[in-house]
Specification:
alpha+beta, about 65% helix, OMP_efflux, efflux transmembrane transporter activity, T1SS_OMP_TolC, transmembrane
Length: about 425
């Protein structure tokens, strides 16, 4: 048996589940809302942030556990000798139970609970921020796909218009009213426009592939985006930073760091607790129980400067977290400002492109009539056809530049998800978000 035949008969081992490729299905149509929801359930960052909230809640439970009784069992086996005024006892075995209840620790536990609670809340806001980022990325990809769909349609319409010019030139050449070079010139323009169409189609397929990776589905049709995106009020003076997840996450981390300072300072103070124990001792002479109920006071006197160092570290973290709140505000303002400028610029270019397209279409109709009468050359007619397509392309690009700016602004001010038609209660239906 040859080596090729041998290896062809060997069956490949099945891939483990973690190594399988992400699934992508095909659907007939998608809306922006459906794309964003699918991206939520597919994006690993969303799942990770949701799991981080669970970790934060567990950290709160761990901090709160200090308030509850601490119960432990103990046991020892082996020789042990105790000396007292009456002599000595040789122990071979001891076992028992110990219960410790915290009474008061001057804010160590309460500040630790508050610190972990603030940290858990910051994780929640980070999840909201992650959802907004995923929604923004998905919406921008959605808009780009819509852009290339519109450009492809404009190129297809221009091809149909050029084909009618070609037929007109063919009729005039057959009647001897112009040379056959007009037909070649028109055919060249048609082929050039078909090349543009192929480029737009390739870009469309590439964008749809990106959208399929984000959502897990590949759609044959994309619905029009909601008008609410372009109708939202846009202003840089009335941004409510108290509702923006990035700022809220930074503020909660600042609060967490503040509680951390108070917790570190409380380490200078004693901790009071009640300890009860019942231990059974088995000796060489007799067996007996030892009962214990005591108030314990644990007060640090000197630890080599460890507590002071911990306080300094906590205060440093608090200063850093306070500056991060301001940095988050500046980041939001910068993003909103850029989106605001892009939005205004796109609206102006769209109006100019629309006016240019209307004028070019009117000129095309006039030139076509004049060409039929022999008052215009085919070159003039082809030039105005190119002007129509360029004006339409400029209008389409300006329109979708405006959509992209609207998406960026809505994401910056935490308004994108509701404008896409997604209500907050929908989050509960997503995997790992409960």
């Amino acid at each position: 048996m040859s080596a090729v035949a041998f290896f062809s008969d060997v069956k490949a081992a099945p891939l483990p589940q973690w190594a399988s490729a992400p699934a992508v299905t095909t659907v007939n149509a998608l809306t922006l809302k459906e794309c964003i929801l699918r991206a939520f359930s597919r994006n690993p960052d969303v799942t990770q942030q949701a799991a981080q909230i669970g970790i934060g809640q567990a950290q709160i439970d761990e901090a709160q556990s200090a308030w509850y009784p601490q119960i432990g069992l103990n046991g020892n086996a082996g020789p042990s000798r105790q000396y007292d005024s009456s002599g000595s006892l040789d122990n071979s075995t001891s076992y028992g139970i110990t219960i410790t209840q915290l009474v008061y620790d001057f804010g160590k536990t309460s500040n630790n609970v508050k610190q972990q609670t603030a940290a858990r809340d910051s994780y929640r806001f980070k999840l909201m921020s992650t959802l907004s980022e995923v929604a923004e990325k998905t919406a921008l990809t959605y808009m780009e796909a819509r852009r290339y769909q519109a450009l492809s349609e404009a190129a297809q319409n221009n091809i149909h218009s050029l084909e009618s010019v070609y037929k007109l030139a063919n009729l005039r050449a057959s009647a001897g009213l112009n040379s056959s070079s007009d037909e070649l010139q028109a055919q060249t323009r048609i082929e050039g426009m078909r090349s543009n169409l192929e480029q737009y189609q390739a870009q469309l397929q590439s964008t749809l592939a990106q959208l399929a990776v984000l959502t897990g589905v590949k759609s044959l049709s994309l619905a029009a985006p909601p008008n609410g995106l372009t109708e939202q009020p846009v202003s840089l003076d009335n941004i409510d930073y108290g509702k923006i997840p990035e700022v809220l996450a930074a503020e909660n981390l600042r609060q967490s760091a503040e509680y951390g300072v108070e917790k570190s300072k409380a380490e200078y103070l004693p901790t009071l607790s009640i300890q009860g124990a019942k231990t059974r001792y088995q000796t060489s002479d007799r067996n007996y129980w030892n009962d214990q109920l005591q108030l314990n006071v644990n007060a640090p006197l000197y630890q080599g400067g460890a507590v002071s160092a911990q306080v300094e570290q906590a205060e440093g973290k608090h200063k850093i977290s306070a500056s991060q709140v301001e940095q988050a505000k500046l980041d939001v303002l910068q993003k909103a400002s850029v989106a605001f400028a892009n939005w205004n610029g796109a609206r102006g270019r769209e109006l100019a492109g629309s006016a240019q397209a209307t004028s070019a279409k009117r000129s095309r109709d006039v030139y076509r009539d004049e060409y039929k009468l022999g008052k215009r050359s085919l070159s003039d007619l082809l030039t105005v056809e190119q002007d129509v397509f360029q004006a339409q392309s400029a209008e389409i690009n300006a329109n979708y530049d405006g959509w992209n700016a609207a998406v960026n602004y809505a994401a910056a001010v935490n308004n994108l998800i509701p404008l896409a038609g997604i209500k907050e209660g929908v989050y509960n239906d997503l995997p790992d978000l409960k």
